[in-house]
Amino acid sequence: MEQIILDIIEFLKQFSYFGVVLALTFEFIPAEVVLPMVGYWVYEGDMNFWLAVLAGTLGGTTGPLTLYALGYYGGRPVLVKYGKYFFIKEEQIQKADDFFEKYGPVVAFVGRFVPGVRTLISIPCGMAKMNIWKFSIYTFVAMFPLTTLYIYFGMKLGPHWEKAAGVVGQYMLPILVVVLIVVGSIFIYKFMKKRNKTESI
After folding, report:
1. Fewest Cβ atoms nearer than 10 Å: which of 13, 40, 75, 130?
2. Domain total for the chain?
3. pTM
4. At what angle do helices 132-157 and 164-200 cross, to 10 degrees?
5. Confidence of residue 198 (pLDDT cuts 50, 70, 90)
6. CA 34 – CA 29 distance, rounded (Å)
7. Which parts of the sequence belong to the VTT domain (predicted)?
8. Distances, alpha carbon 7 to alpha carbons 2, 10, 13, 41, 157, in Å
């Protein structure tokens, strides 16, 4: 299976940056494989770093939209029945659903930094009919730093780009902590602002 995925990515390379977008649009191809490989192409001089990051971020945004649409229009019964064709297991759907129930719409952003939840969090967002523009913005903003990290380490590791996912994984917990602090600060600020406005009336 892994070799098939690598062959697909190599095939899409001929389409340059658009190929990167396409590779990430297909959700069954892990970003953890695509992006470090793109970093290796940057290392070889076949692509510009920042254009590759932009293409990766766009692809990392359009891909989740397909799962969002499945959740929005199909709902859980359709996903359970046909999810296997998208390499989606029912227990994975349940895990993402539980995460959404616990943390709400903000998981469209925070969930991108959580292994095991990152890909499938789009499904409960769609099932909850979350605003598509808000979902897209949250996803894009979250995917930018992740894409940058994966491509950067893929580039730095060169021929050993396969190790990039493990290296990025070491940074994931600190990144998640920073993300939670930022998100928490925003919520506190909004809450205090709303309370002050109410008290002034």
Report:
1. 75
2. 1
3. 0.77
4. 150
5. low
6. 7
7. 29-154
8. 9, 5, 10, 15, 20
* 151 pLDDT more than 70: yes
- Closest residue by Cα to residue 105 from 183, 181, 28: 183
Residue 161 token pair: 């780009």
Nearest to 137 by CA among 55, 200, 61: 61
For residue 71, pLDDT beyond 90: no
Cα–Cα dist 41/55, whole Å: 13
| Burial track 112-129 (b if 16+ CB lie within 10 A, e otherwise) | bbbeebbbbbbbbbbbbe
- 13 pLDDT more than 80: no
Domain range for 136? 2-200
Half-sphere exposure for 55 (CA within 13 Å, toward CB): 23
Residues with Cβ within 8 Å of 123's Cβ and at least 6 positions away in sequence, in order, are 67, 68, 70, 71, 79, 88, 93, 96, 97
